[in-house]
Amino acid sequence: MTSPNPEAGQSPPSGPAGTDLTGRAALVTGASRGIGHAIAAELLARGARVAITSRKPEAVTQAAEQLVAAAGVGADRVLAVPANSGSDEDRAVAVQRVVDTFGRLDILVNNTGINPVFGFLPDADLAAVRKIFDVNVVGALGFVQLAWKAWMAEHGGSVVNIASVAGLRSTGAIAAYGASKAALIRLTEELAWQLGPAVRVNAVAPAVVKTRFAEALYTGREDESAQVYPMKRLGRPEDVAALVAFLVSDAAGWITGETVRVDGGLLATGGLG
């Protein structure tokens, strides 16, 4: 990973040694809300300049404004890029805009994920399953390819893929999504081997986190759902964001090819579905 290059007049943010991201540029996909938005906010707080993507121009613009206001930083620290992670053209535009605007791309967080298929796989709509894999796996690889060619091959960097505990253990209910996240976990390992030592590639596997994306998994029964977790609560976007910020920092300089669970101890109980 490249070394920090503090900008003139910008004080380094406080935090654990080795976690300062001042001078680095990050791209977080699918970050207009939820986990992606929390990750962008955390990277911004650690000193990075951050680009966020979302399919809807209005949503990503509003999210960027919220990040700037919450962090109390200049608007030049946050870039909003309307982009569909499943589109080759949109991915290329997004990466190019980051490099053109910030002059570098040190951190890539593949957060975008979709899940339009639930239940019994023999009855699943194959077109929907293809779309899940195209966005969750192929789209993530597409962003890595572009980031590698645009900046990271020569200058180094760090990639974090947002996977899921559903990629580590069967759920029955979100089977196609889980299969795509299992593929993303394996992709993470392959990329870590192939892109090292210049680029570190890791994954994070959350359990149920309280976001709009996961509402169907806990709405109306949050207390009951939380009881199966040793921590007796569901995840928060900030739980994932803190881990991602650590993994892209110098403090995690000898960690690559790993999938780190952030699941409140759920898999330690032997349960999931």
TrEMBL record:
**Gene source species:** Goodfellowiella coeruleoviolacea
Query: Is Oxidoreductase there in the keyword field?
Result: yes
Record keywords: Oxidoreductase included?
yes
Official protein name in the record:
NAD(P)-dependent dehydrogenase, short-chain alcohol dehydrogenase family
State the PANTHER family in the record: DEHYDROGENASE/REDUCTASE (SDR FAMILY) MEMBER 4 (PTHR43943), DEHYDROGENASE_REDUCTASE 4 (PTHR43943:SF2)
Assigned protein family: Belongs to the short-chain dehydrogenases/reductases (SDR) family.
| Keywords attached to this entry | Oxidoreductase
Gene Ontology terms for molecular function: oxidoreductase activity
Q: Which InterPro entries does the UniProt record give? A: NAD(P)-bd_dom_sf, Sc_DH/Rdtase_CS, SDR_fam
